[in-house]
# Entry
Amino acid sequence: MIAGFCALCVAELVAAAVRPEAGPVTAVGGAVIDRTPPALKDFAVRHFGTNDKLVLQLGILVLLAVFAMAVGVLALRHRRIGSAAVLVFGVVGAVAATTRPEGGPGDALPSVVGAVVAAGVLYLLIGRLTRVPGPYPAAGETGRGTAGSFDRRGFVIAATAAAAASAGAGLVGRRLTSSVQAGAAASRAKIVLPVPDSAAPAVPRGADLGIRGVSSFITSNKSFYRVDTALVVPQVDADGWRLRIHGKGVGRPLTVTFRDLLAREIIERDITLTCVSNEVGGPYIGNARWIGVRLADLLREAGVKPPSQGGPADQIVARSVDGMTIGSPVEEVMDGRDALLALGMNGEPLPFAHGFPVRMLVPGLYGYVSACKWIQDIELTTFADYDAYWVKRSWSQRGPIKTESRIDTPRPFASPKAGTVPVAGVAWAQHRGIARVEVRVDGGEWHTARLGAEDSRDTWRQWVWEWPATSGNHTLEVRATDRTGATQTGKRVGTVPNGATGWHSVVVNVS
Ligand SMILES: Nc1nc2c(c(=O)[nH]1)N[C@H]1C(S)=C(S)[C@@H](COP(=O)(O)O)O[C@H]1N2
Ligand SMILES: [Mo]
# Structure
């Protein structure tokens, strides 16, 4: 286990020089995420929520500890073979790191160097443990070695020295990594968000019905859901950030800096973002006030035409610094909706976890086909020619957000008192808008809920229905109708491949 600890610490130090994400635990974790079947991923997200990544990393560490002990036992009998077995883990880490979407050959270094050092440490330590022939065999003992005659003191000194040196190396690695992070944090701290040229209208009074238990109309940055594959949140320095726009039908390829964006027309919009992995009634939705520049304007400057105007590309592939690829339809991005390169969220620069310095947002599309965080490259291509990250993993190429609604209060299995009970929640059909929400009890007739004021078609709406509740067990159900006249289907389907459907229902026990 000491040798294993050495491996991780040394790898941490090397990773600080190469790339923090190339460290073995992060790389293996990332590789596991890349290869996790959607059903298992959904299970992890459902049961561990945003802690899924912590659980994954702890799992990797536990597995490593078990393997380290097994290799240690093996090495006691076969010193050379045991030490060689350590190298196998270096190979696993190296393969994981180099096959990550953003991985390069250099990413193998942390695992390889860590494993070589660990193999050496194990070899030396086992050497200290091996019994040396004593000068005077004790009574009854024959052959090599005598109980208690191995170099106990030498072993303890060597083991302690190895552990201490490794811990030191690991700490230096951490320091180096955190100084890079400090640079990014400093670049964020000095940003003064511009006053938007086109401000979002004030949120209308009555958009927030002020009912206890209902998600607030604007979701704070702190409570905004986070869904991504990044085990280490990328720390990008805004000063060095560049976005390249290129590809099919791009007459004038562009590269823009953060300053370039700030100098452009800035718009501010309220947009509700939703994850395709959100179960019926799930938490992966949030509404924020974003500022940024119109992506369509930039594309037009680059010479891009939407397919309906004869443009050859129908897909925009956005790439992030961590190798994520997200494919969005050119037509929707350029159809006049407020597709953004966002740089501000609820009055501050984007938080690192939400894509600092710049992310994409397209109202009406699930995040996995529109909302690339830590964006650094936009390539125009076609859906026929290229499948983005999630599409390769059995999700649909196109992901318009489905009309959905959720009961926030009462909570499942609540026991409100008989009488008037407000049943309330949120409904969303981004870019189409919500026209009606209805509630029913125990499969009875549908009752029309009162809607909160509409902020924009791109935001969710709160709703409430005053329920004359009678005692006993009851099932509440909700459904929404969007402004195209389509009513949310009651047919239950899972999240894969393009979003869950069904009516959210809550069982309560009225006392
Ligand atoms: N770089 C990157 N961008 C990403 C993702 C990701 O894994 N990596 N996940 C996408 C998904 S699936 C969603 S739902 C949204 C979530 O954005 P949020 O974490 O800011 O809520 O980001 C999108 N952008
Ligand atoms: Mo998502």
About this structure: The domain at 238-393 is CATH 3.90.420.10 (Sulfite Oxidase; Chain A, domain 2). The longest helix spans residues 152-189. The chain is about 30% helix and 20% strand.
